[in-house]
Design goal:
The chain is an alpha/beta fold and 438 residues long. It has 13 helices and 15 strands. The chain folds into 2 domains: 162 residues, Aspartate Aminotransferase, domain 1 (Alpha-Beta Complex); 234 residues, Aspartate Aminotransferase, domain 2, CATH 3.40.640.10.
């Protein structure tokens, strides 16, 4: 049985390992000016590995073009080849094509366009919880190709989308199903294995594209169990650097007509000269997760080490999630702080990534974020006026939420600090509103 299913409330790293993990990341306890803070906005861009930042500088400083035959060019080609293998390591993917882009959002538009413009069908299916790069791509190409866009509704109790809701929209005339792996508002994970299996039972040759940007740093992906046709990741949310998206497309999807130089192979998706640093940084990410896995596994094979590492990231983050919700011996959890509401609070933590949405009875979300900032805590408001939030929040019946998103390099002690600050804000807000001294 996988390690991540054994502990309903997670399993935190040991103190010694926690110290090692923190030492491998930049700016965990202090910002870039050296000021102490808690950065709980990793869903908007995660902490960077020191090794990833250093490797970026090393490789990007090399002026050589990888499309040459001299020694340095060959070295750059090897960097790219190793990272392409590492994309497959993360995904447990066989075959297909790996390609780099400026952003994961751009890659999503590319994948949706290739299917929509070249695969027959009268409808396309997605969910209301999609990131705009997925939802807007589906809307754009459904309109361009004259297809019906079917949108699966969210579940206001779980914060996700039910499998029945999604597959109930799929039929033999569906040309593309596009689903997010986990919500970046609620943290709810979609049951991808069931979605893929049941959708393909309805239409065996259905094309499926998945947005894994939010989920990839927090849990295992296995395309042997969930064989999809396209999936994207964003290194800046995965301990890496901005300005990069890495994606994988299946053998059949790679051969669909797409933007490419005519002289390139039919399954080649990159456009223009490559940026080898994108690949080098990605290998540093996989190296790190495998290093972590080595603390829990005697395996030597890279995929096995990665699986062990990501499983224990998930377990540690679940322990952080449990502490945030229910507290510890040193702090009251969010569920029990007077004046604080936890939104979309599904009790099964195995079905959630490390994201929580909360609200204050006496503060709107934006003011709450300001109050946190004044106390050295960075969180983010998701409000209905934002193009990145409105559709999702409307589906949940919410006007806004304070999104709290720590990362596995945080400790239980960090969570306790956050809870103490939250309690202080709640007390201060209630006191101010009732006329007592703040």
């Amino acid at each position: 049985m996988p390690a991540n299913t054994n502990h309903a409330n997670g399993l935190a790293f040991s103190d010694a390992l926690m110290r090692e993990v923190k030492q491998r990341f930049l700016h965990v306890d202090h910002d870039h000016h050296g000021r102490e803070r808690l950065y709980f906005d990793n869903a908007g861009g995660s902490f960077r590995l020191k090794a990833a930042a250093e490797r970026f500088m090393q490789v990007d400083a090399i002026p050589d073009n990888a499309e040459r035959i001299h020694a340095t060019a060959v070295e750059l080609q090897q960097i790219q080849a190793r990272a392409a293998a590492d994309v497959r390591t993360i995904l447990n993917a066989r075959g297909g094509s790996v390609y780099a882009s400026l952003t994961a959002s751009g890659a999503m538009f590319d994948m949706v366009r290739a299917v929509a413009e070249n695969v027959p069908g009268t409808n396309m299916v997605t969910t209301v919880l999609e990131h705009p790069s997925s939802f807007d791509a589906m809307s754009l190409y459904a309109g361009k190709t004259g297809r019906e866009l079917r949108v699966a509704k969210s579940n206001q109790e779980t914060g996700g989308v039910d499998v029945d809701e999604i597959v109930g929209l799929v039929d033999e005339n569906t040309c593309l199903l596009n689903v997010i792996y986990a919500s970046n508002i609620s943290g709810a994970k979609l049951d991808m294995e069931q979605i893929v299996r049941r959708a393909r039972a309805i239409k065996p040759d259905l094309y499926i594209v998945v947005d894994a940007v939010q989920h990839a740093p927090h849990g295992l992906i296995d395309l042997e169990k969930t064989p999809v046709d396209g999936i994207n990741m964003a290194p800046y949310k995965f301990f890496g650097c901005r300005g990069s998206g890495l994606s994988w497309v299946s053998d059949r999807a790679a051969l669909l007509p797409h933007h490419k130089l005519a002289g390139k192979k039919p399954d080649f998706w990159d456009l223009g000269s490559s940026a080898p640093w994108q690949f080098a940084v990605f290998t540093e990410i996989v190296d790190y997760v495998c290093w972590l896995g080595g603390h829990f596994s005697d395996a030597t094979e890279r995929r096995a080490l990665f699986v062990a590492g990501i499983a224990h990231i998930e377990l540690h983050e679940r322990a952080l999630l449990a502490a945030l919700l229910d507290g510890s011996g040193k702090a009251t959890g969010l569920r029990n702080i007077k004046g604080v509401k936890v939104f979309l609070d599904h009790p099964d933590l195995t079905k959630r990534d490390l994201i929580i949405g909360i609200g204050f009875e006496q503060l709107d979300c934006t003011q709450a974020v300001v109050e946190y900032g004044q106390r050295g805590v960075t969180v983010y408001e998701r409000v209905a006026s934002s193009i990145y939030s409105k559709r999702m929040l409307d589906s949940f019946g919410l006007e806004g939420t304070v999104r709290v998103s720590p990362l596995h390099c945080h400790s239980i002690a960090d969570v306790e600090k956050f809870l103490h600050v939250t309690q202080e804000i709640a007390v201060s807000a209630n006191g101010f509103r009732t006329g007592t001294a703040r």
